[in-house]
Write a structure and sequence with these properties.
The chain is an alpha/beta fold. The protein contains 18 helices and 24 strands. The chain folds into three domains: 233 residues, Rossmann fold (3-Layer(aba) Sandwich), CATH 3.40.50; 200 residues, Rossmann fold (3-Layer(aba) Sandwich); 80 residues, no CATH class. 44% of the residues are buried.
């Protein structure tokens, strides 16, 4: 193959869904051994284009070439036969199967009709060690973290000896350390001659790992550039037209009264006999953003499940002075806004329309119901307002099925619904997961606005940049315990990393000093407010 030829060419691809042209005459060319990033806003058509390459969708127009020859990809089986693999943004795993069973599913090695698991296990273990993708092969997928599920998906692709690897938002659920590892893995794969298509919203990652970048905007091809010839701001401007503020803009916090108080909060583990969260105690005040930071799998998910009532817990939960420890999930949900970690499992009913999802917790309230019947006109009016305010993009507006929307727009819909409920406490878990830079800027500004209006924000994030730039106070969780507490202005990413990995931990005296500083700021703010009044 000549050097100037491409391993994959997608020429003049057009894909139409009801009410929207997802891909409008797009051409994408992938060189052998390169990492090629695909960049664009939520709903720009990136995942759709990759789904066409993987055989999940059939284009209305255009052709696909592999090594210069036209190929027909009618299904993922055809893509696999052409050695094209894909790690999807929303994992395609069977929850009740083990990790090993998921990896070999559809590519089973049999002899005389019997499954040869021993050989499969050996191959997976060798791949796991070679690329540093360590997972428990015998664990059920439903019991492992999203980070481990991501590794399972990558191993599934490598197990099939694929040459063209598609990564759709691969770092959206990974920790900073895991992201660094994945970047190294991708570079190694490219060095071995594999060709990688890499969908990402994270400009830092694209600049660090990609050779070239193709930008899409609203389903159209904008251009392809070499990363060495561009910068983050230029890419951002290509993607969203307007200049985007890449740093969070906010004034210093003015903490007020305590909204959420936890005392000896403990949550049992769902996968072993011990506790996933152990005797956690802290406060969240009005007018501040408190972040729980940590490496994925250290109790953050169980903590949120315990707080929201999805899991049993012990200890005391006090909200606005009221003990809600014995409240049901429904009653707790009425007293706090909750942006969940898993938008598909806990955020949306995927086969409901967008407008129905917008009123999930409020359809019994006025004005959405009259005489026991849902007032569809009021629901439509309300949904239209949120769609416009939060720029939620979908093919058919409020009547679009949630399942058919892009992941980023599904996330924006949940955030719109939860922030508009106007609760004293906002629990935001990975709120910007899978969002583009323009949407991240908007969501961060909304959370800061909620803080400035006197709401208490409890943020759980795996993104160190987000933790440091958005938070006012940071609590580090390691193995279910709070091992460090910092004012965000007083800590570096490197220091946080040491606490997140368990290499360091604060004693009670050090944590008390941070709490005293917080208490002093709250007192000064309260007194200042009284004088102003």
């Amino acid at each position: 193959m000549a050097e100037n030829e491409y391993v994959i060419e997608m020429l003049h691809i057009t894909k139409v869904f009801p009410g929207i042209i997802a891909n409008d005459d797009i051409t994408l060319q992938l060189k052998k051994g390169e990492i090629h990033a695909l960049l664009g806003e939520n709903g720009a058509g990136k995942s759709t284009l990759m789904s066409v390459l993987f055989g999940l969708y059939q284009p209305e127009e255009g052709i696909i070439k592999k090594n210069g020859e036209v190929v027909k990809i009618d299904s993922p089986n055809d893509a696999t036969a052409l050695h094209i693999g894909m790690v999807h943004q929303h994992f395609k795993l069977v929850d009740v199967f083990t990790v090993l069973d998921n990896i070999i599913l559809g590519a089973e090695d049999t002899k005389m009709g019997f499954l040869q698991k021993k050989a499969a296990r050996k191959k997976v273990q060798e791949l796991s060690e070679k690329y540093g993708l360590y997972v428990d092969l015998d664990a059920k997928v439903e019991n492992i973290t999203v980070g481990m599920q991501q590794r399972t998906e990558i191993l599934k692709m490598l197990y099939r000896d694929n040459e063209i690897l598609i990564f759709d938002e691969p770092t959206a659920v990974l920790t900073p350390q895991e992201i660094d590892e994945l970047m190294a893995i991708m570079k190694n794969l490219a060095a071995e001659g594999k060709s990688i298509l890499f969908i990402s919203h994270k400009l830092n990652e694209i600049m660090a790992v990609a050779d070239r970048v193709t930008v899409l905007r609203k389903g159209k091809y904008i251009g392809t550039v070499n990363t060495k010839d561009t910068n983050k701001q230029e890419l951002s401007n290509m993607m969203v037209v307007r200049p985007v503020q890449l740093q969070v803009v906010k004034d210093e916090a003015k903490p007020g009264d305590v909204v959420l108080r936890l005392e000896n909060f403990t949550v049992p583990s769902e996968v072993h006999k011990g506790n996933a969260v152990k005797n956690v105690s802290f406060d969240v005040r009005r007018g501040e953003i408190v972040c729980i930071a940590g490496i994925d799998g250290n109790g953050q998910t169980e903590f949120i499940h315990g707080l929201s009532g999805l899991s049993k817990s012990s200890g005391k939960i006090e909200l606005c002075g009221e003990d809600i420890s014995g409240y049901s999930i429904k009653k707790r949900g009425k007293n706090m806004s909750h942006i969940p970690e898993d938008r598909h499992k806990h955020g949306l009913i995927l086969d409901f329309t967008l407008e129905e999802n917008m009123v999930l917790q409020r359809f019994r309230e006025s004005p959405f119901q009259k005489g026991g019947f849902i007032d569809r006109a009021e629901v439509r009016k309300y949904a239209d307002r949120l769609i416009e305010t939060y720029d939620v993009r979908s093919g058919q507006g409020p009547i679009t099925l949630a399942r058919s929307m892009s992941g980023g727009n599904q996330q924006k819909a949940i955030i719109a619904r939860e922030l508009d409920r106007n609760k004293d406490l906002v629990v935001a878990v990975q709120p910007t997961r899978g969002l583009d830079v323009g949407a991240i800027e908007f969501i961060h500004s909304q959370l800061v606005q909620e803080r400035d209006e006197g709401k208490a924000i409890l943020l759980v994030s795996l993104e160190l940049d987000e933790v440091l730039s958005l938070s006012d106070r940071i609590l580090v969780m390691y193995e279910g315990e709070i091992v460090g507490e910092f004012l965000s202005k007083d800590v570096t990413a490197q220091e946080l990393g040491l606490y997140m990995s368990g290499a360091k931990r604060m004693d009670e005296t050090e944590m008390e000093k941070v709490e005293e500083a917080e208490l002093k700021a709250a007192k000064e703010n309260t007194e200042g407010g009284s004088k102003d009044a």
